[in-house]
Structures are given as structure tokens and as C-alpha cells.
Amino acid sequence: MIRRISLAALTLLIAVPLAAQAPAGLQLRLDHSTDAADPDDVPEVTVTTSGDGFEVRTGPAVTAWNSANTATGNYTLRGTFTLLEPSGHVNYYGLVYGGRDLEGSGQNYLYFLIAQDGSYLVKHRAGNETTHDIQGRTPHSAVMATDANGRSVNALEVRVGADATDFVVNGVVVHSAPKSGMAARTDGIWGARVNHVIPGILVEGLGISR
Predict the structure, then answer these.
(1) Which of 1-5, 83-87, 109-113 is predicted with the least confidence, judged by mean pLDDT?
(2) Among 77, 75, 82, 70, which Cα is nearest to 122's?
């Protein structure tokens, strides 16, 4: 049985299979697609422990975190994301940081995501409906696109400094944003996000260093 599911996930009335063995303390918030032309064709999300990480299969998009995992000041958040099977169209996955009120209607966080086509984006989520681009969808050679078998491995980092945040893929800085406005809200909960209808993502080595 999943050891912990956030109240927000339950109140959204989205089924998370009880057979899945998720990491202890992991909380999930699920987001239905609101685009009739791009629906959640799979109704469920599964999260299962795999080695020192976890595997996610969507379904609706999901934000995953442990409330004990917070960071302030200068830090580096990192994680390695293995796409096991691609979506039928381009969808994004990656790191969440600076999170607050993740279970409530006032959810607020920043996220750095990549996609199977070799692009990345950086965005700010404020509330249930609103997102703001810090850096819109951008192709970059550092992002490994899917191979002939539909798989890819990408190591992501968010390096939060005193004046700027660097966004890193496989050791290459793909974007740098000054810590001002929305991009300055870097203190808070960290975790991962996997957008909808992705058949398999393995998340490993998720954590921070200073």
C-alpha cells in the first residue's frame, strides 16, 4: 500500500493504486488535464520504489515531495531522470523547488523540466490554474532526447546562488536566471514533477547539497 498520499490528491478524487509501494513519506498532488484535445487517457498514477529512487507512471500530471525536504539560502538540488518509455507526444518532467502550500489551493513552486524531444523549460506555479514562464520551451543539445528504444537519461541540477540560479543538464548550464521577482522564491520544499501520460520515469539521486 502507498504509505502516504496527500490530502490534496485524495480530494481531487484521482485514484492512486494501493498496490504501489511508494517511498515512505512521499506525498502526491495530481493535476487533471483541462485540455479536451490532450486528455489524461490513463486515469491512474503509480509510484513505486526502485532502488534508492522511485518510478512514476502517469496518468494525470503529478508533483511528488516529502514535507521534511526543504532548502533555504544557497543550495544545489539534483536528480537523475531516466525516461523508460516516452509519451505519445511531448511531455515534461524534472525538478520542483521553492515549494509552499503544496497541498492547498495556494500551491506555489518553481520547476525545471525537460522533455523527450531535447528541450527544457523553467516555470513558476501560483495557485491551481496559473503558471508563468521564466524560460519557455527551449531546445538544447545538452538535453538527451530519446534514443531508438525510446529511452533517455538526464542528470538535472538547480544551483541556487546568492544572486542567480543556474539550471544544469548533464553538467552543462542551459540557463541562468537572476534571483528577482518570481525566480527569487527559492526557499521551500523540493521534489519532482512528471507531466501527464508518461508511461515510465525513473527518478534517482534526488537530493540537495550545499
Answers:
(1) 1-5
(2) 77
Cα 3 from Cα 14, distance rounded (Å): 16
CA atoms within 13 A on the CB side of 165: 29
Which residue ranges form the domains of the chain, and what is each CATH number? 7-209 (2.60.120.560)
pTM of the model as a whole: 0.87
The angle subtended at Cα 182 by Cα 181 and Cα 186, nearest 5°, is 110
Q: Is the C-alpha dihedral spanning 15, 18, 105, 207 positive or negative?
A: negative
Provide φ and ψ at 19, rounded to 5°.
-75, -20
pLDDT at 3 over 90: no
Amino acid making up residue 176: S
**Quick one: DSSP state of residue 145?**
P
φ and ψ at residue 80, rounded to 5 degrees = -110, 130
CB atoms within 10 A of CB 29: 24
Close Cβ partners of 55 (under 8 Å, ≥ 6 residues apart): 46, 47, 48, 49, 84, 200, 201, 202, 203
Contacts of 100 (CB under 8 A, 6+ apart): 106, 107, 108, 109, 188, 189
